[in-house]
Amino acid sequence: xxxxxxxxxxxxxxxxxxxxxxxxxxxxxxxxxxxxxxxxxxxxxxxxxxxxxxxxxxxxxxxxxxxxxxxxxxxxxxxxxxxxxxxxxxxxxxxxxxxxxxxxxxxxxxxxxxxxxxxxxxxxxxxxxxxxxxxxxxxxxxxxxxxxxxxxxxxxxxxxxxxxxxxxxxxxxxxxxxxxxxxxxxxxxxxxxxxxxxxxxxxxxxxxxxxxxxxxxxxxxxxxxxxxxxxxxxxxxxxxxxxxxxxxxxxxxxxxxxxxxxxxxxxxxxxxxxxxxxxxxxxxxxxxxxxxxxxxxxxxxxxxxxxxxxxxxxxxxxxxxxxxxxxxxxxxxxxxxxxxxxxxxxxxxxxxxxxxxxxxxxxxxxxxxxxxxxxxxxxxxxxxxxxxxxxxxxxxxxxxxxxxxxxxxxxxxxxxxxxxxxxxxxxxxxxxxxxxxxxxxxxxxxxxxxxxxxxxxxxxxxxxxxxxxxxxxxxxxxxxxxxxxxxxxxxxxxxxxxxxxxxxxxxxxxxxxxxxxx
Length: 518
Prior knowledge:
48% helix; alpha+beta; Beta-Lactamase; Nucleotide_cyclase; Alpha-Beta Plaits; 5-stranded antiparallel beta sheet; 3 domains; membrane; globular; transmembrane; catalytic activity
């Protein structure tokens, strides 16, 4: 019996060792998987945040340059003073990384002398055009310098194929275009260690818009932007030291535009993240790597501690055969606690995934759908075989900038949130209201029976938004300019948005606080 009991004890010890080892390895594996999943989710969140920040900054610079082009085009007879007034609000603090903004005009070789004489009479008496080789030239007439560079009126941007390509395309499509990444002409004389890869934003200047006169092309407003200064702080702020990031121009041999290298990079291909960003007509590539700081946030290493603790406990259980049952129960309780912790972690991960989905497809300030979600729903609505029509209402607030400038961004945010609530409450359950950015909103009306339904919705929007908004006890007033576009056979989503946008500008030109049908 003793011999049998001894072997039974050995068997029990062996069983405890085997069972404890298996359980410890299982806990280690489960916790390591949990750590990997959490680290992956963090990288996804940082990747989405950085991508959204880059997209937001590009959009903001594009909107600023488009506003300047509209202001310049609105001048009856543009001169240097007009350009100076139109660009007076632009500076390096508002546009980090921008080197200068300029008004550029095209000219053939035969037109150089007449063009020079004309602009000398328009506030640039010392202007000297400096054509480079070729028959077509692109001369800087007026400019405002933001950094320590020197003014370059008279420079022929034909020496920069990247810039001329962007200007040519912007004129063809009547929209803002971003050049391939390259080195600005003004940077080629600085020391090599100070040179940066840069881009140029170009917007065509049209005169006569909004009047009975036909639109006439006058030139371009262009902005040089140094990539590292433009985006490095954004990448640092959004990455929070947890990721290293680089931004490259995919269509320009992956030329590096900007990069940040905080902390120590972790070599883990599973955590490498790549995202594409649409910048005008270009596609930029954002690549992100984790750092040790990100892994610290995931408590990576706890799985090793848990596994080691499990093995130590197993040895103790094997030695303490006299208290095997109580020790085993204690181990089971520990496993239950670990399992409960895993369940809680799964619940937290699901909550984080829901939050990430909300951030990816909704505006963080108003909770409305963002541009991406709106565009997807519009395409789905156009592809559906519904009996009714589809209409898009493009909405821009009148007077918002004055409130935002006079009473601060907090007041501006309050106005945007109140307007968002009014728009949301004024549509049907199946319709979509979105914020495109700034003070621009859009509404998708699906399955409308008649065009009059779109008119009714627009009238309700104009009336609702016009109501005073209480900001700290002081009423604020904004109104809306609404452009309406109704889907016709053969019309695509981009066409419908463009028509609604044009109708909105027509509403503004007609006096604001109204709606116009495209």
